[in-house]
Amino acid sequence: MTERADAFSIIADKAALGRRIDAYLATKIEGCSRAYIAGLIRSGQIRLHDRSVKPGYRLRPGDEILGRIPAPSPRFDVSPEPIPLDILFQDRDLVVINKPADLVVHPAPGHPSGTLVNALLHHCPDLVGIAGEIRPGIVHRLDKDTTGIIVAAKNPNAQASLAAQFKSRSIQKKYLAVVHGEMEGTTGRITLPIGRHPVDRKKMSTRATSARRAETHWTVAEAFTEASLVDIDLLTGRTHQIRVHFAAIRHAVIGDPLYGPKNAAAHSPRIAALLSSIQHQMLHAWQIRFRHPASSAEMHFKAPLPQDMANLIQSLRTLHEGP
């Protein structure tokens, strides 16, 4: 049996000898992760010879496995919403989105609706149940005001594959940011550890008492007067990493309300006037490479800059070049 069905009966073959029952079934039932199957075994919905076993039970050839896979239930707490999305790619396993600013990725107490998840539930009617619920698999996130590429899984196998690639750091993500000031040199790396801010719990800090290793590599893509466009590679994935690291070296991301300078005193009047119109942080996840979870083919996507960021870069370029 390889297709998902409500009720099933599987006789363990020779290849099952010594394998955990949860791991074996994950290879036999499409769309069900090992963790999800383990939960069904614990709840008695999957049994061996009509008796309960543990998910770690080691199979023997001839073992009869009986069970029922519940139909995915809707997310009653998260409703589909017709929020416009810039979809770069979509197939039966995943969807790649160019996220705009002001869009929260996942519902939270302060944002129960109007999120990327609500939008995906509307735009992707072919979502398969993940952990027993009809929902997209969010395996990485972008801050509300960060624009650019985000990938979501449509089924448990795709979610597990993408999560493993993120964990192993085999997924390559590149960001573009416009930062305050002119960088010292053309390339560099920032290796300051990051943890929760000791006073302001909404912020992260490089001076936290409990911090984790963080490493950011950067290259100047274009130098301007009093600002720089930097191309960024993350070797770790800490919360707010780019924003915290560049603020720590006194080159905060332009438009960052949390870590940026509180006034424009450090800028000349012309640059200060230009930056005063910025509505969100100038940070864009512009490129990603990963292996397709089903075919293992290399996937490579680029997301165009949001218009306001492109306009800022052009204005800074014009000011830098002069009349």
Structural class: alpha+beta
CATH architecture of the largest domain: 2-Layer Sandwich
* Overall number of strands: 19
SSE sequence, one letter per element: EHHEEEEEHEEEEHEEEEEEEHHEEH
Mean pLDDT: 87
Plain-language structure description:
The protein is an alpha+beta fold and 323 residues long. The protein has 3 domains: 7-69, Roll (Structural Genomics Hypothetical 15.5 Kd Protein In mrcA-pckA Intergenic Region, Chain A), CATH 3.10.290; 74-167, 2-Layer Sandwich (Pseudouridine synthase), CATH 3.30.2350.10; 172-321, Pseudouridine synthase, CATH 3.30.2350.10. Helices cover 21% and strands 27% of the residues. It has helices spanning 21-28, 34-42, 116-123, 156-167, 241-248, 269-275, 307-321; strands spanning 7-11, 46-48, 64-68, 73-74, 87-90, 94-99, 129-130, 133-134, 137-138, 147-153, 172-180, 187-190, 194-196, 204-205, 211-212, 216-223, 227-234, 283-291, 298-302. Strand 13 and strand 14 (204-205) form a beta hairpin. It is elongated and about 80 Å long. The chain starts with 6 loop residues before the first strand and ends with a helix. The model is unreliable at 1-5 (pLDDT under 50).
